[in-house]
Design brief:
Length: 858
């Protein structure tokens, strides 16, 4: 390392005794100058002066000391004209790593997806789901830029590399940049196959009855839809609702609907943001075929206490968040409860008694600059009771529904070193539903039999997993991890009690299973960041007493940057699903069964391919065009209606496995900034299913096939107080099956003691049953579903401590009658000479509905 010029060997060989064996580089340089009188010249831009070093005790000259303290730094000592110069070696530029967290200035909330980059080299990275970043910069770098849509960008000079983490706080800004609005940003990050939506975006457009629903907001984008009008149930690229992996703070959920799917269980006031993956799945995700919906709740404000109260036509919601110890720990609590049962009046109560509630709670504790603990809890429940004497819908039974979700998680995040970030999480999840039915069976005109049935179904998971990120350098970002899940499935447990006799119980078999997962993924940035390649592998295995399944699931994504902010992206992913949902053919009831893969039922598989083009203009306009093809194998269905009352030990025999084919194209045009913002999305898609024992083995349209799906949403801000919005949604009608002929069953071969089999009609009759002849499944389509909604929002007190938000609007402004359920039935009124043949009936749920909501914030 030492270089001597004329007379330099004497300077570098001059005797020198260091005062100690430990110290910083600057300490030893200053002591050499003070003791020997020799001038030492250097540049602090590439010499890390505060780096602590240790001598070995044998150094006794200036050159020997400098050689030891500069070892491995890429700096060499040279002597010339009585001076010592510390020079960088000419072989290569030296790099060092900076890391830290990016947070909001007013709340200390972590900012997900913030950009951190060197403005000279344009090399950069993004913060992860916990706001952490790791970036290698050259020693000539003077500073980096921190930015995120919805926040003011900030340039920060770099401190010496040994001074610990570089944490940054960004200040939120309004889209008009006229006043600073802290809290909820409203801009969506969109890439082909991926969408990140902050919670503030949810209130941008009109909503049904004023309920902010993040899943319905996702439905504005291409490739997403719903099974029924205004349902929050997501359908992604022709897949079923059970093929979506929903994560709430990292905990998987098995049921996400309130009020039979009209609203989701995700309380908009409690959420922070949501990420949706439709393809190019990161390797850390597994277990479902169609999508991943990763939802995170608010961490809690660490600076000061804040809260809000929201009142809508449907529910009331209270949110409180603030510090337990300022800048060290925080808590967030949100409670939502339906109000329909409280003030619904006689008309609402005629339908039955119904209420729901949600509770979200989260603790956030900073241990030190490298360690943080999160603890989160959620419970939501629905209860509904419908009496047989209901004057609105004539029923013969009393029904009681009761279903609930409970999740809990404890999460530990640790910065192992500036390049390695680790996240370890232990979770608990339980979905439980109860369905009772009281039936009176007339044996004659003078006698009857009372039967009470009770069905219980449950899914319980306990899991632990680890996710680790290793920023090898700016070109390689490696992530890896694994986990273990203990499953406990009790699909059905059926109890009956006839009058006062002995109760009959048919307990369901309980399935105890272990699921093991592991993954590894590397993100490579090549050709000066013009090409991003992300290869990965996810491994999953399911083991129980009688079966074992293992699946290797390769993933790869390639993203090529073209001139003028254009991108081409291609991806492939194999996904495996070890659990199945056996559903009713109409709506998403809580009586649907979650069942595991068994010795007789194999896991489901999906092979997903996509090709996309993206273009951006002046950071305001964004265009995405996406083509996709997905092949499904071993997907399951049933040849009858299965629900919680089915004989629990027979459900496996009613399951049929087959294949599916989903393909289509998506178009998204979005304006993200300015007074006028909006979305135009269009999806052209096909979804087919094929089962050997159904429809003669021929392919038929899947019940969730929607040929055309279009959304147009616009928002205009007059000023920081006033904005108006409108949205129009259109979806092709759903496929359904109609018989081409009907004929009487004179021998009552399908009747049970004079009553129709419930698979063909819910109505009992003493008359001859009419049997349908079906040529093929889903041979007709319902009418298209479309509606125009408008809304307006007034914000008061933005510059004050207390704020008021008033929102109002109209749903389905032109009063469209959209099909909710279509059925065909034979009606009879217990008269032997009055027979009404098969007729088709359409039931609509919503016509024009106004709403008005009020929110108080402090």
């Amino acid at each position: 390392m030492l270089r001597a010029q004329t007379g330099g060997d004497k300077i570098l060989q001059q005797p020198y005794t260091p005062p100690s064996r430990q110290g910083t580089i600057l300490y030893f340089i200053q002591h050499i100058q003070k003791t020997t009188g020799i001038s030492v010249s250097y540049s602090s831009s590439f010499l890390h002066l505060n780096k602590k070093v240790q001598l070995n005790g044998t150094e006794n000259t200036t050159g020997a000391v400098l050689n030891t303290i500069l070892q491995g730094s890429g700096i060499q000592a040279a002597a010339l004209n009585g001076k010592i110069f510390l020079l960088r070696e000419s072989s290569q530029t030296q790099y060092y790593t900076i890391s830290g967290f990016v947070k909001e200035v007013n709340s200390n909330e972590a900012i997900i997806g913030a950009s951190v980059y060197d403005p000279l080299t344009r090399k950069g990275t993004e913060t992860n789901a916990y706001g952490f970043y790791s970036l290698q910069v050259p020693d000539t770098c003077q500073g980096v830029v921190f930015s995120h849509v919805g926040y003011k960008p900030r340039f920060q000079h770099l401190p010496p590399p040994d001074e610990g983490q570089l944490d940054m706080h960004l200040e939120a800004q309004s889209m008009l940049q006229t006043v600073v609005v802290s809290g909820e940003k409203e801009s969506v990050t969109s890439q082909p196959g991926y969408l990140n939506m902050p919670v503030g975006y949810v209130s941008n457009f009109p909503t049904l009855l004023g309920e902010k629903d993040v899943l319905k907001s996702l439905q504005l984008y291409p490739g997403t839809g719903s099974s029924l009008e205004s349902s929050s149930n997501l359908l992604i690229r022709g897949g079923g609702a059970d093929q979506n992996l929903y994560l709430l703070d990292g905990v998987p959920l098995y049921h996400t609907g309130h009020l039979f799917g009209l609203f989701s269980i995700f309380n908009g006031d409690a959420l922070k943001d949501v990420s949706l993956y439709k393809d190019a799945f990161p390797a850390r995700y597994g277990g479902r075929l169609s999508s991943v919906v990763d939802i995170r709740t608010k961490d809690g404000n660490m600076k000061e206490w804040h809260g809000s109260f929201t009142l809508s036509p449907v529910s009331g919601n209270i949110l409180l968040e603030g510090p337990i110890v300022k800048d060290k720990s925080s808590a967030s609590l949100s409670v939502r409860r339906s109000l329909v049962d409280a003030y619904g009046g006689k008309y609402i109560k005629d339908y039955g008694k119904y209420y729901l509630y949600d509770v979200n709670f989260k603790l956030n504790q900073i241990i030190d600059s490298k360690n943080r603990i999160y603890a989160s809890f959620y419970k939501g429940q629905d209860k509904m009771f419908i009496q047989s004497d209901n004057p609105i819908i004539q029923l013969f039974d009393d029904y009681n529904f009761d279903w609930s979700n409970i999740t809990a998680a404890v999460k530990w995040t640790r910065v192992v070193n500036p390049r390695i970030f680790s996240n370890t999480i232990a979770t608990y999840s339980r979905f439980y539903n109860l369905f009772t039915q009281n039936t009176t069976i007339p044996l004659s005109f003078f006698d009857s039999l009372s039967v009470r049935g009770k069905g219980v179904s449950r899914v319980r998971d306990i899991a632990i997993r680890n996710e680790t990120e290793y920023a090898i350098n700016n070109m390689h970002h490696l992530s890896f991890g694994g986990g273990y899940t203990y499953h406990n499935f009790a699909p059905t447990a059926y109890h009956t009690n006839i009058k006062a006799g002995e109760a009959t119980q048919r307990q369901a078999p309980i399935y105890y299973m272990s699921e093991i997962s592991a993954y590894a993924e590397d993100e490579l940035r090549l050709l000066n960041d013009r090409l991003i390649v992300r290869p990965g592998l996810h491994f999953g295995a399911l083991a129980q007493r009688s079966s074992f399944y293992a699946s290797a699931q390769p993933r790869i994504m390639l993203r090529w940057q073209l001139p003028r902010s254009q991108y081409i992206q291609a991806s492939f992913a194999k996904m495996t699903q070890f659990v199945h949902q056996l559903t009713t053919p109409v709506i998403n009831l809580p009586t649907d069964l979650w069942v595991p893969s068994t010795e007789n039922i194999r896991p489901e598989h999906a092979f997903s391919y996509s090709l996309a083009y993206q273009r951006q203009w002046t950071n305001q306009w964004r265009l995405n065009v996406n083509l996709y093809y997905k092949q499904l194998k071993d997907i399951v269905t049933t040849n009858t209606v299965l629900n919680i009352f089915d004989n629990s030990d027979l459900w496996e025999k009613k399951v049929i496995a087959g294949n599916g084919y989903n393909y289509g194209s998506e178009l998204l045009l979005e304006k993200t900034q300015g007074k006028l913002t909006g979305i135009f999305s269009y999806t052209l898609s096909w979804a087919w299913r094929q089962f050997d024992r159904i429809n003669g083995g021929k392919m038929y349209p899947y019940k969730e096939d929607r040929r055309h799906n279009l959304s147009l949403a616009l928002k205009y801000r007059f000023n920081p107080k006033w904005n108006v919005s409108a949205s129009w949604k259109f979806a092709s009608g759903a496929p359904f099956t109609l018989p081409v002929q009907i004929f009487p069953d004179f021998d009552w071969g399908r009747n049970i003691n004079g009553y129709l089999d419930e698979r063909y009609s819910p109505f009992s009759t003493y008359q001859v049953n009419y049997l349908p002849y079906i040529s093929r499944l889903n041979n007709y389509r319902l009418h298209a579903v479309h509606h125009l909604d408008i809304g307006a929002t007034l914000n008061l007190g933005n510059e004050r401590r207390f704020k008021h938000v008033i929102s109002g609007g109209l749903y389905n402004i032109y009063n469209r009658t959209n099909p909710f359920i279509v059925s065909f039935d034979q009606f009879s009124y217990f008269a032997y000479d009055d027979i009404y043949p098969l007729q088709l009936y359409q039931y609509s749920l919503f016509r024009t509905l106004p709403y008005l909501t009020y929110t108080f914030k402090f």
